[in-house]
């Protein structure tokens, strides 16, 4: 995926307010502070969450965000939240908040107890048009009428994850995705594992995954390498006790016996995980 292209339409749209401002300055008048229609343009919104939820929504456009519910999920399967036309769906996966009785006991625990079931909290965002998603300050994906998932269940109880959506509006052409329209998310299917290099740019890896019609979720994790790049990916394998194929292979050995170019049977109800270096 290439970087965001130059958008002449956006520049032309901004020329009128600029010309008006210059005219007012030339005549010695001050620009009016009365809100205009452009004040409703989506600017930015930031989601902050930890492994135990505690989700906070902030930013100039926080009024564009609507809660869409919480659902428990098992086996890593994604809950199929409804996404109305024209809306952006944000799904944040986390562990449930500990009760007061368990709060002190869980204070030093880095991993959740094995009987916990993950929760997905969903939000609908009216971005109007394209918005750039940034994970912990690093650009990962341009979105419009789409879904983005962030998972904090893999990072323990330390630290918080930040997902920022920002404008301005504009046209952001993407490769034609109609080839994936006939893919049934409830049916296991075969895919060829892509080449993935540690330290690769997120948009580049995302493009390879979308070519295979794989849904993704992001995890922000500390680790060696350049910040904001891909550390690894985990592709779910259907019917296996080892639930994912991890690429690139680590420690000089194949990941769960799988290498790029291998064909595997995937479970599309479980998103492919892109681990981004924080």
Structure notes:
The chain has 278 residues and is an alpha+beta fold. Helices cover 13% and strands 32% of the residues. The chain contains three helices and 15 strands. The chain has helices at residues 8-26, 100-106, 202-211; strands at 44-50, 53-58, 65-73, 88-94, 118-125, 131-135, 138-143, 147-151, 161-166, 189-192, 216-221, 230-236, 244-247, 263-266, 272-277. Strands 2-1-9-6-7 form a five-stranded antiparallel sheet. It is globular and about 50 Å long.
Characteristic key phrases:
278 residues; 5-stranded antiparallel β-sheet; 13% helix; 32% strand; globular
* Count of alpha/pi helices: 3
Shape: globular
Give the ordered list of helices and strands: HEEEEHEEEEEEHEEEEE
Average of the residue pLDDT scores = 80
The biggest sheet amounts to: 5 strands, antiparallel
**Oligomeric state of the chains present here:** single chain
Total beta-strand segments: 15
Strand content: 25-35%
> Structural class of the helix and strand makeup?
alpha+beta
What percentage of residues falls in helices of 4 or more residues? 10-25%
* Separation of the first and last Cα atoms: 20 Å
Based on CA atoms alone, the radius of gyration comes out at 21 Å
Strand line-up across the major sheet? 2-1-9-6-7
Residue windows where pLDDT falls under 50 for at least 5 positions: 1-38, 100-108
